[in-house]
């Protein structure tokens, strides 16, 4: 055959070459190798063929290939070489521009589409091809993912895509995910024009054209990435990906991880009531959780978290998952621990406390390695389930001083909220946060400022730099007063008075009719706990700030008792401890009539025990109103009135005893840790005698019949 071909012969040999290339469908083997060799021989024998483009090469399961900016010759396309094998290099294949919209069909197809390649704006972007001829190795995929993870902008992602020679469909989907991550801001894209970038267009065009040839993992990952980029669900790309996903789902061959990825995508598109999502969950429920990998367990938890596991619909599945998860918590990394705890909170799995405890133990190892977001979720979960671990607290005490100045403001605030909510007093943590607060307060939102100060007030702790810290609080209140929500502001000011910091300059605003009206608008009816806070601020100003001359709190906004269910400003007396003390008082005083129990004072505080004395120091019956010279307030303080790890009264108990003294009571404290040491009735009587009447020797002299 003459090597010099007419145009018709060119076309015939071109078609023959195309048919040979199109026969490459299955895994590499003898037939495929022979086909490659024949195609290569044709090109070498008839070099003119390199000037002709191949319109389509139909291949098997897809891999997405990005070559260099130059188009490859036919020899490159028909062999497994990662570069051109011709000594003189590839002859450039010219192509026209192809333009498409992400939310519509293609406006103009490229004139050169070799093995589903895409040429956009000539050589301005890489050409992407779906083929099995150039499979990236596991090491190449891993390296790409690592480099992708450090990209902090979409431009860096595009630059990475231009730099690699081979990418799979899952790698391409991962690139779209990374673009979404760096561009997302408040449920939208920071820069929507990123979707018009040529590289994004090229990727999406290829995914649209060859959706049927994507791997299951690449298909569902690409679909999820598109939802994260907020593409129109009715665009051609999305419709094709969803349609193909439905086809794969109907086959019933997807892995659990792929099902979860598809479920997340359909959750974003259809919401929790979607038919396709329901089918995904049916497939997952057919699986056995005991056989799932750790990654699959985490994926299913996250999917259920999004669905919210309505009405106990997936109770059996969750219980089986909890059982299996208990056996693998020791292998969980920080992201898995945080993700599972967050899911358990959303699903309100209060019956899974053994799992929560196990996850908390694993969290101890990861405290220094959690991201700010992960640590925030962990702390939120522990607060939700009411759990704290001694070793976790110790780990936090080591970590917080290193992060207080650099971590996200929300994370620092969550740390303080955790310690405050769990009544854990750690001077190490509180001092570090107090020091950082002075320098970082301007970075905090009004709610974050309040969360941190409320913790100090609740635990009744003043750091060494209290003056600087509360000076900063006053500056913030003065410059950002209008930024605070009414309840947030009230919580902040109330926390201040618990630790003897009196916000006199702002009390007048709190007592104003305008502010009280704002409180009422928030809740329609102001809660009793809110009125109690207002009342205690009013009493504090009256007792401890005699120079205050501003408006007073109107009587209709005052409560009569701080002791109430829920958010009480007093801790109810421990019944067991109270009964033991009461028995000892009867033995000491000779009769039950000589002391009153749970006595409400005119200043809203409730006394555990009240003992009245006359001017000579004799004990009066509790019913006596006249001739009372002295009143003893016995505070029977159980464990709940102290911080959990130190013998320090909570802020609300400290202010109560402080106010009782200002009101003229002699406050006698009976702490649980002293009383529990008493072995018998005699030691109890001696202890109470020493507490109540330390300077008296004959008890009979102190009783008045």
Give the SSE layout.
Blueprint: H1 7-22, H2 30-45, E1 64-66, H3 74-77, E2 99-100, E3 106-108, E4 128-130, H4 138-149, H5 154-163, H6 169-183, H7 198-209, H8 216-228, H9 236-251, H10 256-270, H11 275-285, H12 294-307, H13 315-326, H14 334-346, H15 353-366, H16 372-385, H17 390-403, H18 409-421, H19 427-440, H20 446-459, H21 466-480, H22 486-498, H23 504-510, H24 513-523, H25 528-544, H26 575-589, E5 596-600, E6 606-613, E7 619-620, E8 630-637, H27 651-662, E9 666-671, H28 672-675, H29 681-692
Parallel strand pairs: 8-9
Antiparallel strand pairs: 1-4, 2-3, 5-6, 6-7, 6-8
Task: Tell me about this structure.
With 705 residues, the chain is mainly alpha-helical. The chain is 52% helix and 6% strand. It is built from 29 helices and nine strands. The chain has helices spanning 7-22, 30-45, 74-77, 138-149, 154-163, 169-183, 198-209, 216-228, 236-251, 256-270, 275-285, 294-307, 315-326, 334-346, 353-366, 372-385, 390-403, 409-421, 427-440, 446-459, 466-480, 486-498, 504-510, 513-523, 528-544, 575-589, 651-662, 672-675, 681-692, and strands at 64-66, 99-100, 106-108, 128-130, 596-600, 606-613, 619-620, 630-637, 666-671. Strands 5, 6, 7, 8 and 9 form a five-stranded mixed sheet that branches. The chain has a two-stranded antiparallel sheet with strand order 1-4. A hairpin with a 5-residue loop joins strand 5 (596-600) and strand 6. The longest helix has 17 residues, at 528-544. It starts with 6 loop residues before the first helix and ends in a 13-residue tail after the last helix. Residues 1-125 and 698-705 have low confidence and may be disordered.
């Amino acid at each position: 055959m003459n090597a010099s071909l007419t145009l018709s012969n060119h076309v015939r040999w071109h078609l023959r070459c195309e048919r040979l290339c199109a026969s490459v469908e299955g895994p590499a083997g003898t037939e495929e190798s022979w086909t490659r060799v024949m195609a290569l021989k044709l090109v070498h024998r008839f070099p003119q063929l390199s000037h002709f483009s191949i319109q389509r090469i139909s291949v098997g399961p897809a891999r997405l290939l990005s070559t260099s900016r130059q188009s490859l010759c036919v020899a490159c396309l028909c062999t497994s070489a990662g570069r051109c094998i011709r000594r003189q290099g590839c002859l450039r294949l010219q192509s026209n521009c192809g333009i498409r919209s992400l939310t519509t069909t293609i406006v103009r197809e490229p004139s050169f589409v070799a093995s589903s390649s895409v040429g956009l704006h000539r050589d301005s972007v890489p050409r992407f091809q779906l083929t099995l001829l150039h499979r990236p190795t596991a090491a190449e995929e891993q390296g790409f993912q690592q480099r992708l993870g450090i990209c902090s902008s979409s431009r860096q992602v595009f630059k990475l895509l231009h730099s690699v020679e081979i990418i799979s469909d899952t790698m391409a989907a991962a690139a779209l995910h990374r673009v979404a991550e760096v561009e997302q801001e408040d449920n939208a894209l920071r820069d929507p024009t990123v979707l018009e970038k040529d590289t994004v267009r090229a990727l999406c065009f290829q995914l649209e054209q060859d959706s049927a040839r994507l791997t299951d993992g690449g298909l569902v990952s690409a679909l999820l990435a598109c939802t994260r980029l907020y593409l129109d669900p009715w665009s051609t790309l999305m419709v094709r990906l969803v349609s193909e996903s439905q086809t794969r789902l109907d086959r019933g061959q997807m892995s659990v991880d792929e099902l979860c990825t598809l479920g997340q995508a359909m959750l974003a598109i259809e919401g929790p009531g979607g038919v396709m999502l329901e089918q995904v969950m049916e497939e997952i429920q057919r699986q056995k959780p005991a056989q799932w990998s750790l990654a699959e367990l985490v994926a299913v938890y996250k999917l259920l978290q999004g669905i919210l596991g309505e009405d106990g619909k997936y109770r059996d599945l969750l219980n089986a998952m909890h059982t299996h998860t208990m056996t693998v918590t020791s292998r969980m990394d920080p992201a898995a621990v945080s993700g599972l705890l967050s899911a358990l909170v959303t699903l309100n799995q209060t019956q899974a406390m053994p799992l929560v405890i196990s996850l908390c133990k694993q969290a101890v190892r990861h405290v220094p390695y959690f991201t700010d977001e992960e640590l925030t979720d962990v702390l939120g979960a522990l607060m939700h389930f009411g759990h704290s671990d001694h070793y976790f607290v110790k780990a936090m005490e080591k970590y917080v001083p290193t992060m207080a100045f650099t971590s996200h403001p929300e994370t620092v605030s969550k740390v303080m909220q955790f310690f405050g909510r769990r009544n854990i007093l750690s001077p190490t943590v509180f001092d570090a946060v107090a020091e950082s607060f002075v320098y970082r307060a301007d970075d905090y939102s009004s709610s974050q400022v309040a969360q941190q100060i409320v913790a100090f007030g609740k635990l009744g702790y003043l750091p060494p730099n209290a003056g600087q810290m509360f000076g900063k609080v006053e500056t913030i209140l003065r410059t950002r007063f209008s930024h605070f929500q009414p309840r947030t502001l009230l919580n902040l000011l109330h926390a201040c008075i618990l630790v003897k910091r009196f916000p006199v300059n702002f009390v007048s605003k709190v007592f104003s009719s305008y502010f009280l009206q704002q409180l009422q608008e928030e809740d329609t009816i102001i809660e009793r706990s809110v009125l109690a806070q207002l009342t205690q601020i009013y009493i504090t100003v009256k007792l401890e700030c005699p120079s205050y001359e501003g408006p007073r709190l109107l009587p209709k906004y005052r409560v009569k008792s701080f002791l109430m269910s829920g958010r009480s400003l007093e801790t109810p007396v421990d019944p067991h401890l109270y009964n033991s003390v009461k028995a000892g008082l009867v033995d000491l005083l000779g009769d039950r009539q000589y002391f009153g129990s749970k006595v409400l004072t005119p200043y809203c505080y409730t006394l555990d025990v009240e003992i009245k004395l006359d001017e000579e120091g004799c004990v009066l019956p509790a019913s006596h109103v006249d001739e009372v010279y002295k009143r003893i307030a016995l505070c029977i303080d159980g464990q709940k009135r102290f911080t959990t790890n130190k013998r320090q009264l909570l802020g609300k108990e400290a202010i109560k005893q402080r106010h009782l003294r200002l009101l003229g009571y002699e406050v006698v404290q009976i702490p649980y840790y002293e009383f529990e040491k008493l072995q018998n009735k005699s030691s109890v009587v001696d202890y109470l005698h020493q507490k109540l009447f330390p300077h008296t020797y004959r008890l009979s002299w102190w009783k008045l019949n």
